[in-house]
Specification:
Radius of gyration: 12 Å
Oligomer: single chain
Strand order of the largest sheet: 1-2-5-4-3
Shape: globular
Distance between the termini: 9 Å
Number of helices: 3
Largest sheet: 5 strands, antiparallel
Order of helices and strands: EEEHEEHH
Structural class: alpha+beta
CATH architecture: 2-Layer Sandwich
Strand content: 25-35%
């Protein structure tokens, strides 16, 4: 088992359907990573790509952005981020 990832979820007040997740582990260096689909996550060894693939497997995920220890997930209209925090928490437990 890997190191557990702790996650704090914050819903955007100015952008409905956008949720920010702050973690206790950085997932990228100083570069931004942006994904509009699971197919855009092409690096099999990159934690941000792996996380994006897992998040797009959840219903309603429209866009994923990763920068350092912050993950922003935009949901399609009418969807809630069910399972997103848990997916992030489990990333390094099974990665």
């Amino acid at each position: 088992m890997g190191q557990p990832v702790l996650v704090k979820e914050v819903e955007s007040a100015s952008h409905p359907g956008s949720f920010r997740y702050e973690t206790n582990r950085p997932l990228t260096g100083m570069g931004h990573r942006s994904f509009s689909s699971a197919e855009a996550a092409t690096d099999p060894d990159d934690p941000a790509d792996e996380l994006a693939r897992r998040l797009f497997a959840l219903p309603g995920v429209e866009h994923v952005h990763v920068y350092g220890n912050v993950i922003t997930v935009d949901m399609h209209k009418g969807f809630r981020p069910e399972g997103v925090a848990e997916t992030i928490e489990r990333l390094f437990s099974h990665y």
